[in-house]
């Protein structure tokens, strides 16, 4: 086994760290407080090649591996998960979904601008009454011969407003259950699409989250990804990779909070010495470090499996489950170490704690990951 990163992977990690620590940090508190979308940062990350980093260069992507993606996601998420989630959804749900399962015409038309970061993608699976229970899609895509007619509502959609290329999961033939579901590429400017208000969230407040309503939205048949009825499997396969992105985000939230806790404990004095010299604090730090290291190893293992063409669905579920759980624990302890300062915005750790909570919920809750992992253990 080789635990060393390549020179290229280290360069990508460094570029992400530099951008996060020099640029994102400057306005992250204000953007979070006011729910301002980080438009200029997204443009800068597109210029760095981070929005299509996994895409083959022949489709204008960065051609980087999934290990590099984990490293970059961790660094960006240490500072700002509202930015990291744009990267994650664009790379591992939308670009990956079209590159892997789309046809050549779809890659030319939709993937290239997404990989260049000129356009942003969104993945529309969740509905008001279908989150974890993803087969219960109520949004319909009626087959009208040469086109689909889409009706329904999608909920909690990241990049709904800034995005212009949607992948919509919808039911075409309810009699066939999940085998009647399709994944269809829909351009946001198609008539009949409207957005609900920006969601006022607990954390990741500057990410762009809305519900999206479809009323008689006409989409050409050629925009369907894969064979008729492939949509549910498409969503499941794509989420396997998406979960590596969110696991890495949770990892970054945890390691970012840990770094801040270490720094603070080396500056703050209590009872005549630095708080890092109190065993109660030092042991908390050691527990954080073990958890962060385990989460990083799970993320990198899932990425390695993906890069080497091996099954990675269970590994990505393990990475997401573990990283999200420890992100909540580590950020809570980071707030505790900061005491009163941890509870105010200036020290960042309260925001990281709010961000951690979402990683236990989106792209499959922790309980959904437990279902995926336990089914793999128990299958014949
Ligand atoms: N890859 C390929 N196919 C998969 C799959 C995967 N990872 N997971 C499930 N499938 C297939 C199954 O093989 C089955 O196909 P067949 O009927 O042909 O055998 C089909 O999908 C239905 O699977 P299953 O019966 O297991 O469906 P369940 O309703 O029990 O749900 C879970 C499975 C819970 C794993 C799924 O609904 C899930 O992941 N839910 C969470 C969705 C989510 O992440 N929501 C948040 C969205 S944020 S973008």
How would you portray this structure in words?
The chain is α+β, with helices and mostly antiparallel strands and 380 residues long. It is built from 10 helices and 9 strands. A hairpin with a 3-residue loop joins β2 and β3. The protein is globular, with a radius of gyration of 21 Å. The two termini are 29 Å apart. The site of coenzyme a persulfide (COS) has 21 residues, from α6 and α10.
Number of helices: 10
Question: In whole angstroms, how far apart are the ends?
Answer: 29 Å
Major beta sheet summary = 4 strands, antiparallel
H and E order: HHHHHEEEEEEEHEEHHHH
What spatial order of strands do you see in the largest sheet?
2-3-7-6
What is the percent of helical residues?
A: 40-55%
Mean pLDDT: 97
User: Could you tell me the radius of gyration in angstroms?
Assistant: 21 Å
Shape: globular
Instruction: Provide the β-strand percentage band.
Output: 5-15%
Poorly predicted ranges:
none
> Count the strands?
9
What class do helices, strands and sheet pairing give? alpha+beta
The hetero molecules present are: coenzyme a persulfide
Index terms:
binds coenzyme a persulfide, alpha+beta, 380 residues, three-stranded mixed sheet, 10 helices, 52% helix
SSE topology sketch:
Layout: H1 7-34, H2 39-47, H3 66-79, H4 81-101, H5 104-115, E1 121-124, E2 140-143, E3 147-158, E4 165-171, E5 181-187, E6 193-195, E7 209-220, H6 231-265, E8 269-270, E9 273-274, H7 279-307, H8 313-338, H9 349-359, H10 366-378
Parallel strand pairs: 1-4
Antiparallel strand pairs: 2-3, 3-7, 4-5, 6-7, 8-9
Helix pairs in contact: 1-3, 3-4, 3-6, 3-7, 4-5, 4-6, 6-7, 6-8, 6-9, 7-8, 8-9, 8-10
The structure holds coenzyme a persulfide (COS).
Coenzyme a persulfide binds at residues 123, 125-126, 131-132, 134-135, 178, 232-233, 236-237, 239-240, 313, 362-364, 368, 371-372.
């Amino acid at each position: 086994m080789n635990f060393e990163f390549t020179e290229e992977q280290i360069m990508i990690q460094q570029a992400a760290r530099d951008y996060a620590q020099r640029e994102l940090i400057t306005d992250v508190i204000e953007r979070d407080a006011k729910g301002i979308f980080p438009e200029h940062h997204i443009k800068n990350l597109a210029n760095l090649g981070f929005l299509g980093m996994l895409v083959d260069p022949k489709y204008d992507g960065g051609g980087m591996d999934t290990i590099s993606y984990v490293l970059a996601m961790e660094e960006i998420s240490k500072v700002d998960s509202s930015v990291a989630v744009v990267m994650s959804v664009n790379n591992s749900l939308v670009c990956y979904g079209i590159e892997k399962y789309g046809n050549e015409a779809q890659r030319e038309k939709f993937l290239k601008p997404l990989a260049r970061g000129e356009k942003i993608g969104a993945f529309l699976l969740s509905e008001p009454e279908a989150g974890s229970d993803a087969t219960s899609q109520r949004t319909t895509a009626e087959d009208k011969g040469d086109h689909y007619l889409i009706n329904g509502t999608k909920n909690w959609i990241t990049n709904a407003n800034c995005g212009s290329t949607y992948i919509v999961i919808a039911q075409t033939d309810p009699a066939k259950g999940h085998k009647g579901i399709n994944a269809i590429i829909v351009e946001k400017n198609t008539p009949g699409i409207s957005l609900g208000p920006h969601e006022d969230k607990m954390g990741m407040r500057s990410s762009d989250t809305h519900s999206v309503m479809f009323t008689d939205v006409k989409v050409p048949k050629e925009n369907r990804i894969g064979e008729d009825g492939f949509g549910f499997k498409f969503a499941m396969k794509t989420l396997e990779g998406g979960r590596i992105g969110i696991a890495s985000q949770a990892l970054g939230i945890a390691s970012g909070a840990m770094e801040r806790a270490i720094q603070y404990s080396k500056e703050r004095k209590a009872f005549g010495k630095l708080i890092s010299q109190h065993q109660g604090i030092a042991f908390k730090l050691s527990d954080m470090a073990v958890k962060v290291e385990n989460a990083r190893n799970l993320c990198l293992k899932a990425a390695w499996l993906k890069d080497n063409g091996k099954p990675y669905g269970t590994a990505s579920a393990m990475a997401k489950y573990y990283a999200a759980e420890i992100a909540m624990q580590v950020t809570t302890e980071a707030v505790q170490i900061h005491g009163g300062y941890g509870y105010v915005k200036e020290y960042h750790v309260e925001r990281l704690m709010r961000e951690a909570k979402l990683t236990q919920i989106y792209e499959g809750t922790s309980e959904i990951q437990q279902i995926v992992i336990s089914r793999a253990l128990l299958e014949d």
